[in-house]
Amino acid sequence: MIPPARYSLFADSTRNRASRLNPLSLSEPFVPLRRLWPYYVNFLFFVSPCEILLFFSRLSPPITFHMSVLTPLALCWRRIMDNNSLEYATAKPLATGLELAGTIVAIQDEAPLEVHYRIECDADWRTRAVSIEQRLGLQQSSLSLAVDTGGRWSDQRRGLIDSVSGCLDVDLELTPITNSLPVNRLNLAVGQVEEIAVAWIRFPSLEIVRACQSYERLADRRYRYRSLGSGFTAEIDVDELGLTVRYEGIWERVTR
Questions:
Q1: pTM (2 d.p.)
Q2: 161 shares its domain with 242
Q3: Which of 33, 59, 85 is the last residue of a domain?
C-alpha cells in the first residue's frame, strides 16, 4: 500500500523533502501540486495569449473548406472598371460537387450583351460541365462543354477539343466567379505559387483558348493572379468559402 502522504496535495514527509531540489523529479510517481505552483504562476503571468494560441494552432490540422458544408448562396458583382456590367450568380451544392450559375448583363462593343452560364464541378473543384447561352443584340448563340476525369474537353457540336486537353478549370472572360475554381482546387499555402493551364472562354465569340496562368497566395484570403501570356497581374480577395469578393480594378462584389 502506498502511504497517503505520497498523494496528498498538502502533506509532506521527511523522506520527500530532498526532492524539493527537483520538483519535477521523474523518480516520484506523483508530484505534489504545491511544488508546481511556481511553474503555474510563471505560465499564467509570463506566457502571452498569442503564444498560447500559436501553440494550440500548431497542434490542430489546417481547416479546409469542403463544398458539402455549403448552403445555397446568391451573389452579385459589379464591373467597376467601366460600370458596364452587372452579374447575378448562385452557388449550390450538388450530390457530387458544386454548381455555379449566373446571368451577366453588359455592354460589349457598344451592343447589349446577355449571358447565362452554368458550371458544374466535382468534389475537388475540377470543372466537369459548362453551358453558356448568350444574346448579343438580337443574335443568339450557345456553347455546351463536357470534361471527363482525364481532362479531355468535348464540345456538344464539334467533339473533342485537343487544344485544352488536360486543363482542369474553366475561365469565363466576363466573370470573376471562375477564379474561385483554382483558388479552391489548388488550396495553396500562404507564400506558395502554382502555374496552371485553363480553358479560357472569350465573349462574345465563345472562342475556347488554352491560357497559362499562375496563382500565388499572399495571405489567408488574398491571392495574386498572373496571366503568363500577357503578364497582366491582379490581386484577388476571397471570402471564407474561397469565392471571389474583389478582383483588383475590375470587379467588386456588392452583396454577400
A1: 0.74
A2: yes
A3: 59
pLDDT single digits (tens) 14-47? 344 344 344 444 444 444 544 544 544 454 455 5
Of how many residues is the chain composed?
Answer: 256
Q: Is 71 exposed, middle or buried (0-12, 13-18, 19+ CB in 10 A)?
A: exposed
Same structural domain, 79 and 119: yes
The last residue of one of the domains, among 17, 34, 59, is 59
The letter for the amino acid at 214 is S
Instruction: Count structural domains, the chain.
Output: 2
Q: How far apart are the first and last CA of the chain?
A: 67
Under a CB-based contact definition with an 8 Å cutoff, are residues 126 and 186 in contact?
no
- Tell me the residue range of the domain where 227 lies: 67-253
d(CA 226, CA 217): 12
200 near 171, Cβ under 8 Å? yes
pLDDT of residue 138: 95
pLDDT digit string, tens, across residues 164-199: 999 999 999 999 999 999 999 999 999 999 999 999
